[in-house]
Amino acid sequence: MSAAPLRIGTRASALALWQARHVAALLAARPGALPTELVHINTSGDLEREVPLWQAPGQAFFTREIDRALLEGRVDVAVHSLKDLPTQLEAGLTLAATLARADPRDALVSASGATLARLPRGARIGTSSLRRRAFLARARPDAVLLELRGNVPTRLERLRRGDYDAIVLAAAGLVRLGLEAQVSEYLDPQEFPPAVSQGVIGVCARADDAGTLRRLGPLDDRDAHLAASAERALLRRLEGGCQVPLGALATVRDGALTLSASLCTLDGARRLSARGQAAARLEEAIGLGERLADELLADGAAELVAAERQARAVEEP
Question: What is the value of pTM for the model shown?
């Protein structure tokens, strides 16, 4: 009698399916591997495409329904872009593996092939990210920032159709879909700090499912785990249930973990930054994230975030 397949919950977009198939392939390469089965699940982020993400209340737009299926036993594994996953997981779930990080940077794709600096004055730039809006406004205050929703192929098609002069996407997603030739410029993470955990695939399981956790454990990449832990600790300390215009990037080198973070107002007028280093161990990584968050809060991050939320509640940027 054949073993029951390990059911992997995933969104049905091209990128989400690439990520789920990648996890399935990694699992299949392990000794004593179980067969796997992909289970497509629609999320609120997929279904509600008219509301800008930064205006939607709460979090987990692209993960909530998948994690609910995991808790209810309809799937055994949930695969997410870790940047979409709330820093506080639902009770009963655990982050079982963080896969090796791909390129964490943002990428500009322009209709003409121009870089950000060479786009014409008043260029229309599309993004669904509050963070990208803020740092774009700082770099190009003349640009017209427009809302952009949809999966990666849909966004690229809207650019080709002429709805935008340029769009900003995660470099990792473009590379995973074989679309890196579309990139006009990789944005410098010092000027455009990426989203927390951008480029990392997170794999969740039920906390009491010892068999699945044992299978997923070997997929965990130590450096990605440490970097994501530091970045997520930073965000957890700063956020309050909404998106925050925050960018952060942690790197591990020679036994040390370095974390830099920046928070920017939506108009780009004010930027707060912090940077620190700690030993490349889990407790120290989490502590570093929390310490940098406290530095940002002491510099006025709480007031900045509160002002931005109040502004977003009454008018669209």
Answer: 0.91
| Dist CA 186 CA 16 (whole Å) | 22
For tokens 């942690």, what's the residue?
A: 250
CATH T-level fold of 106-186: D-Maltodextrin-Binding Protein; domain 2 (3.40.190)
Helix axes 301-314 and 282-298, enclosed angle (nearest 10): 70
* CATH hierarchy code of domain 1-101+198-220: 3.40.190.10
Catalytic site includes residue 84:
yes
Residue 230 near residue 289 (C-beta atoms within 8 A): yes
Dist CA 10 CA 196 (whole Å): 21
Digitized pLDDT (tens) for each residue of the chain, 317 residues in all: 467 899 999 999 999 999 999 999 999 999 999 999 999 998 765 545 555 554 444 455 578 899 999 999 999 999 999 999 999 999 999 999 999 999 999 999 999 999 999 999 999 999 989 999 999 999 999 999 999 988 999 999 999 999 999 999 999 999 999 999 999 999 999 999 999 999 999 999 999 999 999 999 999 999 999 999 999 999 999 975 457 899 999 999 999 999 999 999 999 999 999 999 999 999 999 999 999 999 999 999 888 877 766 666 544 43
Q: How many Å apart are CA 140 and CA 223, to the nearest integer?
A: 34
Could you state, in order of their start, the residue ranges of all structural domains in the chain?
1-101+198-220, 106-186, 222-317
Q: Which one of the listed residues 67, 76, 84, 165 is annotated catalytic?
A: 84
CATH architecture of 222-317: 2-Layer Sandwich (3.30)
